[in-house]
Design brief:
Structural class: mainly alpha
Shape: flat
Largest sheet: 2 strands, parallel
Strand content: under 5%
Order of helices and strands: HHHEHHHEHHHHH
Radius of gyration: 26 Å
Oligomer: single chain
Amino acid sequence: MSDNKTQDLIDSIKNKGKNLESEMSFFDHIDVLRKHLLRALLVIVIFTGLAFWFYDFIFNTVIMGPKKPDFWTYRMMCRMVDYFPSLGSDFCIKTIKGKIINTEMAGQFTLQINSCVMTGIIFGIPYLLFELWLFVKPALHENERRSTSGFVFFASSLFIIGILFGYFIICPLSINFLTNFSVSSEIENTFTIDSYLSSVATLTIGTGIIFELPVVIYILSKFGIMTPKFMRASRRYATVVILIIAAVVTPTPDIITMLVVAFPLFILYELSIFISAHIERKRNKELYGTSKRPN
């Protein structure tokens, strides 16, 4: 009986040691992650400081750009009307209605801080992805490292393309639509600068995040959560959602304008299906020795 108690005590000590070791390992990982995030935060702070230094250009040229009729997007649309008159005169945007005001005493001060922080985050996200990759990399096998070696470049490229598409396409078309939309002639469109900055940030950064769809699908497919069969079956619903988004942000009911906005979103969805199918074929080949799952 005493021998059993002694053995139980020894087993209890061993299990307690294992639990303590696993807890220490967990907190060690948290500490490593903290260091990676702190380095990424430092880079964002540096970019934020640079944004303060070049603030006149960032605010007057970049942030307020979509509000000006001579913005690149509007000039290109007017040039397209010159080459294709069938688009109609409404396609050429020459005036942007709506007055922007500041209604708070510290409004312009917080505006400068918020816009600089937003700029720092946009420029710092690629480095944040790099730090996250460095954190995950030691836990991957050699073949997994090779297959995901281009993660940072691919994800950063998609984010930058999304930012550019959101800023030059979605943002100006949305601003033109919202500033000209009116339910009554008795109501004058006057917007606060906070509302304007929030719209620009949401449309620009939001589009950059949406363009990360192939990366999200890649991760979900790796875990077996998302399959190409499900995405193909949901294509009709995705098409409706994409067309609704495109119809909301386009300035005219012209089908060509709507398709210009919707086309990249269709490409992203089809690219996501291709990525998911590639991962499924690779997984089936490793499990069954063939690219097709046996019946």
